[in-house]
Design goal:
alpha/beta, Rossmann fold, seven-stranded parallel sheet, five-stranded parallel sheet, 13 helices, 35% helix, D-isomer_DH_CS
């Protein structure tokens, strides 16, 4: 069982996490390591205790959910300054919005994410949203429950077979989306500035510049990280550049698309619909304008929240933390350039 704190420093390696929900696989894996002490600290209600635990930690599993994790426990420059022993941080998801990677690199702290751990779930959810929009699933369900006197033709939707899907980003999730799209008989195009054209082709898509993707795609689906280069990437000009009647889907991160601009494009009839799993504020307020539109299908950042994905992410995080605390290079380093420095710091723990 994990300790509630660090009552003694007999363990050479100290790992902490907060008491936010985490699949039990994490604690089970760490619990098998005789030289690692796991401390579970309160996310809320006892900041002094939590800070005291973090100040002596060598490793920190941090939630990737920016609107669930209290701001003081983000891995910020301010927190790092108070945690001189911290050598490795693991984000509990593919994203790492709660980690200041540059500050970690400057401090010699290795950062890992769990890219791929929830890829199957997010890719599946992409098509759940897309099909719900195109086939008017929610509208049909609601009318069957609450309405009478309508015909099947009143609920007529559209096939996705034979259409073009444009993927903005074709990493582990985007690659899975591409394969599923091919199974539906869709043409797949993609834009990813981090990959060369041959790599994009190997991942199942035709490489195109972003303006061409917007102009050609019947479905635009986001699968890129949120960073300085992508924040606000899909703005009013981008929505205007999309084909009339196109569908917009995002299971990436809130902030990549402009919610007000999307609302205008949908309300004005330029776009057919949108499937949204991610929001600038999560959950969005109940009076969010997008939620009032009948052609928007909305979920609460649950694309990667399945039993299987949460287990995979917990296992991945625990295994990578164990590897790092053993001095072994982990597979999902976000800041690989820091590893020689971090490894040297970790070696001193033995």
């Amino acid at each position: 069982m994990p300790d509630a704190g660090y009552p003694q420093h007999d363990f050479p390696k100290r790992l902490c996490r907060l008491d936010l929900w985490l699949n039990p696989a994490f604690d089970q894996i760490i619990g098998k390591e005789a030289d690692i002490a796991l401390s579970v600290l309160p996310a809320r209600g006892d900041d002094a205790r939590t800070l005291a635990g973090l100040k002596t930690a060598h490793a920190y599993h941090v939630s990737a959910a920016k609107d669930e994790l209290p701001r003081p426990w983000f891995v910020s420059a301010e927190l790092i300054a108070q945690c001189p022993d911290l050598v490795c941080v693991s984000s509990g998801g593919a994203g790492y919005d709660t980690v200041d990677v540059a500050a970690c690199t400057a401090a010699g702290i290795a950062v890992v994410n769990q890219a791929g751990g929830n890829a199957a779930s997010v890719a599946e959810h992409t098509f759940a949203l897309l099909l719900a929009v195109q086939r008017r699933v929610v509208e049909s369900h609601n009318r069957l429950r609450h309405d009478t006197g309508f015909t099947r033709e009143d609920l007529m939707g559209h096939e996705i077979h034979g259409t073009t899907i444009g993927l903005v980003g074709i990493g582990q999730i985007g690659s899975r989306v591409a394969r599923i799209a091919q199974g539906f008989g869709m043409r797949v195009i993609a834009h990813d500035p981090l990959l060369d054209a041959d790599t994009i082709r190997r991942r199942g898509a035709e490489p195109v510049p972003l303006p061409d993707l917007l102009a050609q795609a019947d479905v635009v689906s986001l699968h890129c990280p949120l960073d300085a280069s992508t924040r606000g990437l899909i703005d009013a000009r981008a929505f205007a550049a999309m084909k009339p009647d196109a569908v917009f889907v995002s299971t990436a991160r809130g902030g990549i698309h402009d919610e007000a601009a999307l609302h205008d494009a949908l309300r004005g009839g330029h776009l057919r619909g949108a499937g949204l799993d991610v929001w600038q504020q999560e959950p969005p307020p109940r009076d969010a304008p997008l939620l009032a539109l009948p052609n928007v299908i909305a979920t609460f950042h649950t694309a990667g929240v399945t039993h299987e994905a949460r287990r995979n992410v917990a296992q991945s995080s625990a295994n990578q933390l164990v590897m790092m605390l053993r001095g072994e290079r982990p597979p999902q380093l976000v800041n690989p350039e820091v590893w020689p420095v971090a490894a040297a710091r970790i070696a001193k723990l033995k």
